[in-house]
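Bench log. Compound arrived from synthesis this morning; before running ITC I wanted a structural hypothesis for how NAP sits in the protein. Inputs:
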Amino acid sequence: MTQTIRWGVLGCADIAARAVIPAIQSSRLGRVVAIASRDAGKAKEMAARFGIARAYGSYEELLADPEIDAIYNPLPNHLHVPLTIKALEHGKPVLCEKPIALDATQAMELAAAQKAAGLPVAEAFMVRHHPQWKRARAVIAEGRLGEVRAIQTIFSYYLDDPGNVRNQADIGGGGLFDVGCYAINTARFLFDAEPLQAIALMERDPVFGTDRLTSGMLGFPHGRQLVFTCSTQLALTQKVTVLGTRGRIEIPIPFNAPADASTVIVVDDGRDLSGGGRELIAVDPVDQYREQADAFASAILTGEPLPAGLDDAIANMKVIDALVRSATSGRWETP
Ligand SMILES: NC(=O)c1ccc[n+]([C@@H]2O[C@H](COP(=O)([O-])OP(=O)(O)OC[C@H]3O[C@@H](n4cnc5c(N)ncnc54)[C@H](OP(=O)(O)O)[C@@H]3O)[C@@H](O)[C@H]2O)c1
């Protein structure tokens, strides 16, 4: 294997064009060398646009290319597990978009295939690679917030295009899968624990059948709580507040931190309501997608374990499953 990872990309996904391919092309340890689409013309166009050497008119051809070291899978959610398993069968590690599967059972099938292949697979929660989250965790670990007991997360945007994958229930659309998964992932990261109970309220789009508004609560050990709201049909916004007995952190752009501008996290000791105890911690610009690509490439090249592998993805999926069950049962469910 070369010292640079040669990536192949499945599908001409918006997220691939908007963020991940440019990030890999400017990464330290990788280059995209091939792209596949169900439409060969689209693959050719994307290849020309991003300086990608080979374009394929089917995913199968790309997976069979022996000169590819890793696959990026940004297909719709229902194709995450099947195509990632296919890639593993071709001996290729996979960075797969979130959520890793449609449910935890499917995620565990993937884990069995991954174990059999002995190759890395990661769920593309790029936020874990942004230093603002590491900084927030460090502030908590230093004890500056006292005892951290609650997290509140909001993540919403307005999108009513019926053709968008997010508005198609049968292929894994809806707000909980698309953005609620970040609230769960980052709360698990900050609390460094798994929730014991989950409850959710879902409101579905009458035409799409997808959850367009989901609010949920997770109960973590020692009485700690996450409360979140996510939506595909509310004004664009995102925010995380972490509350402790002696202070709070606010992360104003928690999930889509820009690659070319600093972000800030706000630490406030709560001495008054006018910001008298507020400190702004600036975080230098970072392309979280590039960090993610390099972390994955590094795991392949060094054989070192990934910072978060499939165990973490399965744990996240179990929480999503519990919230989905709760939205139907109206009761607390156990992840
Ligand atoms: N980490 C992040 O920041 C982030 C951001 C956005 C989205 N995502 C994730 O990335 C994935 C793709 O999202 P996206 O918004 O980029 O979607 P998208 O633009 O619709 O791209 C999905 C691609 O999958 C292929 N595809 C295969 N079967 C399909 C089908 N039945 N319907 C639609 N497309 C199909 C298409 O490629 P071809 O036609 O070329 O084959 C399509 O371009 C999702 O899992 C989403 O959760 C992650």
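What the model suggests: The longest strand covers residues 233-244. Residues 11-15, 37-39, 42, 74-77, 79, 97-98, 124, 126, 165, 171, 178 surround NAP (CB under 6 Å).
ITC booked for Thursday regardless.
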